[in-house]
Amino acid sequence: MRKNPETMCSDPTQDVTIRIPCALAERVAAYAADNAGTFSSVVIEALDFFLRGQKPV
User: Fold this and answer.
1) Interval 10-57: pLDDT, tens
2) Nearest 5°: CA angle at 20, between 9 and 8?
3) Domain definitions of the chain by residue range
4) At residue 3, does pLDDT exceed 60?
5) pTM for the whole structure
6) Within 13 Å, how many C-alpha atoms sit on residue 35's CB side?
């Protein structure tokens, strides 16, 4: 049985530290700057699209 993600954490957000290649970090930062977003928002959206099996528009 799948658990509801909303009930898994007491806080709606969670700090996560990952290490990614420098070139990828630069691409994320550039995308965020070009689209008035943040580094975190780009990563969250990309992970969400990937995990849902969707493709960004």
Assistant:
1) 888 889 999 999 999 999 999 999 999 999 999 999 999 999 987 666
2) 10
3) 18-57
4) no
5) 0.71
6) 13
18-52: b (≥16 Cβ within 10 Å) or e: eeeeeeeeeebeeebeeeeeeeeebbeeeeeeeee
Look up residue 11 and give its two tokens.
């806080």
Q: How far is the C-alpha of 27 from the C-alpha of 5, rounded, in Å? A: 29
32 close to 43: Cβ distance less than 8 angstroms: no
State the sign of the Cα–Cα–Cα–Cα dihedral 22, 45, 18, 36. Answer: positive
Q: How far apart are CA 8 and CA 14, in angstroms?
A: 11
